[in-house]
Amino acid sequence: MDQITAVRTVDHDVIDEYAAAADRVHTGRAIRGIVNQHQRIQQMDTAVSTLITDIEEKRLLDKALIVITTEFGRSPEFDSGGGCGHQGAARSCVMAGGGLSLCHARGGTDELSKEIVANPVGVPDFFATICAAVGIEYHKTLFSGDRPVPIIDRGSPIAESSI
Question: Which of 86, 107, 113, 139 qualifies as a cystine partner to 119, CB 3.0-4.6 A?
């Protein structure tokens, strides 16, 4: 790698209010958890749009890659505990900057967000796209002692023409 890449991680207090909502279902206050979640989403939306605008005004958007992702999606219905279960098949990801000109939604699910029905992107391809955008040679192999460790295991960057 011929360049230095700085990585910053920003974490918000708690976005997930489903567990708290589930605790309140039995007391009749489940709505408060949903309201809290929507307030946190608004805070994140404001912060991310301000960040993108700030980086763009400084003419650094081609050099900075912003990635927002979740570890899993949520099922659209309440489960027996009053919360929403984990949805491993689909998740939300947003990428901005980094010289990417994707500017599109990629992939799609059925109306309940349970099944991927169009243009799936696997985790290796997602990470290969990040690596390629920041100049990391994703196809290389590193070594831990004698043990080869691929940077990305069989992934390829998402081709802009495939969107």
Answer: 107
Per-residue DSSP letter, 158: P
Rounded-to-integer distance, Cα 27 and Cα 36, Å: 17
Distance CA 158, CA 106 (A): 10
Taking the model in full, what pTM does it have? Answer: 0.71
Whether residue 98 contacts residue 64, with contact meaning beta carbons closer than 8 Å, is answered with yes
**pLDDT at position 80, please?**
64
* Cα–Cα dist 78/80, whole Å: 7
- The mean of the pLDDT values for the chain is 77
What are the b/e assignments for 69-100, b being 16+ CB within 10 Å? Answer: eeeebbbeeeeeebbbbebeebbeeebbbbeb
What backbone torsions phi and psi does residue 8 show, to the nearest 5 degrees?
A: -125, 135
Which tokens hold the place of 83?
């919360």
The pLDDT of residue 11 = 65
Determine how many CB atoms are found less than 10 A away from the CB of residue 138. Answer: 19
pLDDT above 80 for 129: yes
Phi–psi pair at 155, nearest 5 degrees: -100, 155
